Amino acid sequence: MESYSNEAFDTRFKQAGFTISEKDLQESSGVLQALLYLPLYKQTNMEAESIKERVIYDFWTRSTIPWKLECE
């Protein structure tokens, strides 16, 4: 629960219309390359690799300026 509104979700955030898979996100950020160097990563995460392709993240934004962009 959010303390300011007692809502389960912060309604100030809006979907921006962009999506990315977990695998693509990890590849583009360099995280996946770092994970490959961990001991036993390849032996224990082969199934997780296929799951990462199906996990899709949405990009959300929230205006930090409460002003209206129109003249009154």
Report the span from N to C terminus.
35 Å
Give the class from helix and strand content and strand pairing: alpha+beta
Largest sheet: 2 strands, antiparallel
Overall geometry:
elongated
Helix proportion? 25-40%
- The number of distinct β-strands equals 2
Rg computed from alpha carbons, rounded to a whole number of angstroms: 19 Å
Query: Could you name the ranges where pLDDT drops below 50 across 5 or more consecutive residues?
Result: none
Number of helices: 4
Folded structure, characterized:
With 72 residues, the protein is of the alpha+beta class. The chain is elongated, with a radius of gyration of 19 Å. The mean pLDDT is 83. A two-stranded antiparallel ribbon has the order 1-2. It is 38% helix and 22% strand. The protein has a domain at 20-62.
